[in-house]
Amino acid sequence: MRLPRRGACVDSRVTTTLTCTHLNQIRDVSPRTPDGCEECLQTGSTWVHLRECLTCGHVGCCDSSPNRHATAHNRAVHHPLIKSFQPDESWGYCYPDDLFFEEAPALPA
Ligand SMILES: [Zn+2]
Ligand SMILES: [Zn+2]
Ligand SMILES: [Zn+2]
Fold it and tell me: In the CATH hierarchy, which top-level class contains the domain 26-101?
């Protein structure tokens, strides 16, 4: 785990968003396969929910799906952050920190 930068604010008001050290790996991505899980579309499999990788735009299926391609993507290429790809959900998740975000982190505007 990387140490916080020198001078970084570490007081008690810091929210969970600021304890994730992977926000610099977020890219301005768009979903590579907006129609569904990239691997499941290739194999003709099905999924329950979808997650989008914030580093490369990979769309994978959640851990309630038979193939768990979102987690498999993280294991394979170590992209740390995902967000929900469900239209009615906006949460995000960091795998290495095991951290949930109520609102998925995004690139600064
Ligand atoms: Zn993190
Ligand atoms: Zn899948
Ligand atoms: Zn990725």
Answer: alpha beta
